[in-house]
Design goal:
The protein is α+β, with helices and mostly antiparallel strands. Helix content is 35%, strand content 18%. The strands form 3 sheets. Strands 1, 2, 4, 5, 6, 7, 8, 9, 10 and 11 form a 10-stranded mixed beta sheet that branches. Strand 12 (545-550) and strand 13 (553-561) form a beta hairpin. The longest helix has 19 residues, at 143-161. It starts with 52 loop residues before the first strand and ends with a strand.
């Protein structure tokens, strides 16, 4: 099927449309006769066979280039965070001695002072750090990362042993009493999820068996706590953010082959949210964005374990609607952490605040995209993935320091603001250390017939089972080419499928220096099936400059070159305004006039730079310490 602009009402021609027609319009004015999730859930294990599987991170290494740089900046930041400070609040909560200085910001304890400001999310970052440590070990083989993760697991196991019923947290169980009584409390299950996910990652990726014991005890505590609630009361409790509790319990069920954890995960099915999605209705207005994306990731995981198509429909429609109706040119979504308007009202959203595009949202949307790609092997998911990775992730980590952003603001005259080393620990700081510790996890995928090359990142795949290595050398996106060297001890007959991006008008492919007589349309794969032994594949893409309009105001447009979103350089910003602590959004700065662009941009002297009148345009991921603009009148 050839996709036309009517399939992409937002102008973001990048989301995969998996049916032959656009989703039906939401039904308004009448309630459905049957809501898919109103009946009690019953878990039956029926594993869905994936159409594509990612290679283990241990088999893929990122080579020198911008992604390796980002990974190294992140590793350096992680190495500077001491274990005693990471576990300090857990030890205090368990009554164990510690002389460590507490972190500030979102990890701030109250230090026994009733009027001292505290964070009720304390402990969440340590969970993220465990996941990042496990991923860093899997992606680079870093024994230092594994040793640090192992030490944290052991320390937290000691804390758990001092607390009743398998409970483990950096805050008292009284927080859950407040949750049960529906009193104000800041998302205790959100933090517990991060710790459980970190423990499970330390087991599955770093082989730490103690971590499995800890997470199973935590799951036992969560199972018993939720089982004691009525269905109506539990649905009310789910109005308080609970992170990905459903996902981690489903993942634990898969790892341990114990359906008890999946049934506990089902209690975190928020029916008020899932029912409209299963009926393909957008009722997202007014919702906190990153509260709900992890819930949908859990739905995707439930479908994979059970084959229950209700959960498939939730994930499928949610991804479609967010990427086509609620995402900017960068693929980022949210404004002030919420969806504040109806679908396809992005220009109206942009005028509301300077806090567009929370980075956590992009981290989780990429996780969701991976699930949907597994089900279909549809390369258009990687058109989305690539654009998000280049614009929402690669440019939101600070060079050298490894600090990360909370919002990638699209407010005219915006600038980038990063966390402090020891006194921020925003949710996006946690998802940041995770993101940049696994940049090798989606480059290559496999099925029974061969390999999919989905991202153009300098890297090497060691496919041990087939006795074959694939080494990709590229400077993409600085240069629209990549070269793939295939090496095997003896000929290996298989398919190598090259993703032909949606943004190119033409791709030239050579094998061993000879241009092949085959083609594939943008947004598809070029399939090369033959015996491979010592062969080189060379790909050259045509990149074009294009404008994408706002769906609700075609006078406002963003410029893209290939998958790269371009921003206009509006001058330097006071460095003091680029670092945040408890306040993640931009602080006040003098207003500046935003020029209009009346001429088509022309290439400038530097690669990927353009000039439009008196405005210099360059990739948004390359701008630091300067004010910028993305949408132009």
């Amino acid at each position: 099927m050839k996709l036309t602009r009517r399939h992409f009402a937002s102008g973001l021609a990048l989301s995969p449309i998996l049916a032959a027609q656009s989703p039906p319009e939401p039904r308004r004015g009448t309630a459905p006769e049957v809501s898919p999730f109103d009946a009690p859930l019953s878990f039956t294990r029926n594993i869905v066979r994936p159409k594509a599987r990612p290679f283990p991170m241990t088999q893929v290494r990122v080579l020198a280039g911008p992604f390796a740089d980002a990974a190294e900046w992140n590793r350096g930041y992680m190495s500077r965070l001491p274990v005693d400070r990471l576990v300090r609040n857990f030890r205090v909560n368990a009554g164990l001695p510690t002389s460590a200085k507490p972190f500030g910001g979102w990890e701030q304890p109250n230090n026994g002072q009733p009027l001292h400001r505290e964070s009720e999310l304390r402990g969440h970052f340590t969970g993220h750090f465990l996941s990042a440590s496990a991923q860093l070990y899997a992606s680079t083989g870093s024994r230092d990362a594994k040793a640090k993760g192992d030490e944290i697991v052991d320390q937290l196991a000691q804390c758990q042993a001092r607390l009743p019923g398998g409970y483990l947290s950096a805050f008292p169980a009284e927080f859950f009493d407040r949750l049960d009584a529906r009193k104000n409390v800041w998302a205790p299950f959100y933090t517990v999820h991060k710790i459980m996910a970190g423990m499970l990652d330390m087991y599955t990726l770093a082989g730490n068996k103690q971590a499995l014991d800890v997470v199973q005890k935590m799951a036992d505590w969560a199972d018993q706590w939720t089982a004691s609630k009525s269905e109506t009361h539990m649905q009310d409790i789910l109005e308080t953010e609970y992170g990905g509790m459903n996902e981690v319990l489903y993942n634990l069920s898969a790892v341990s082959n114990d359906d008890r954890w999946a049934k506990a995960g089902d209690r975190f099915t928020k029916k008020r949210f899932f029912n409209p999605l299963a009926l393909r209705r957008d009722e997202l207005r007014g919702l906190h964005v990153n509260t709900h994306i992890p819930q949908v990731i859990g739905a995707a995981r439930r479908y994979e374990l059970s084959g229950d198509t209700r959960f498939h429909d939730v994930a499928d429609y949610f991804f479609y609607e967010v990427t086509t109706a609620r995402s900017y040119a960068t693929t980022g979504t949210s404004n002030g952490e919420g969806w504040l308007t109806g679908p396809r009202q992005l220009a109206a959203e942009l005028k509301r605040s300077n806090a567009t595009e929370e980075c956590c949202c992009s981290y989780n949307m990429l996780k969701l995209a991976r699930h949907l790609y597994e089900w279909t092997a549809d390369p258009r998911y990687f058109d989305y993935y690539e654009r998000s990775l280049l614009n929402m992730r690669l440019g939101t980590i600070h060079p050298e320091t490894g600090a990360t952003q909370y919002y990638l603001s699209l407010t005219p005259g915006a600038w980038k603001t990063f966390n402090t080393e020891f006194d921020s620990f925003w949710c996006c700081t946690g998802s940041g250390v995770e993101e940049y510790s696994k940049l090798n996890d989606s480059i290559y995928w496999q099925d029974d017939d061969g390999v999919f090359v989905n991202l153009f990142i300098a890297s090497e795949l060691n496919w041990e089972d087939r006795g074959l290595r694939i080494r990709q050398e590229t400077k993409f996106p600085d240069a629209p080419t990549t070269s793939i060297q295939v090496t095997a001890a003896k000929p290996v007959h298989l398919a190598i499928r090259l993703r032909i991006p949606e943004w190119t008008s033409d791709a030239t492919v050579k094998v061993n220096g000879k241009e092949i007589d085959a083609s594939a349309s943008p947004g598809s794969y070029l399939n090369l099936t033959r015996p491979w032994k010592n062969d080189r594949i060379e790909i050259a893409f045509k990149m074009h400059l294009r404008a994408e309009p706002m769906p609700d105001d075609p006078r406002q447009r963003a410029f893209l070159y290939g998958p790269l979103v371009l921003a206009g350089d509006l001058g330097a910003i006071d460095p003091a305004l680029t670092v945040g602590s408890n306040v993640p959004q931009m602080r006040r700065a003098p207003e500046i006039a935003i020029p209009s662009i009346s001429a088509n941009p022309e290439p400038a002297d530097q690669p990927l730079h353009f000039r439009a009148g008196n405005v210099d345009l360059m990739p948004i991921n390359s701008i630091f310490g300067r004010r910028y603009n993305v949408y132009w009148t």
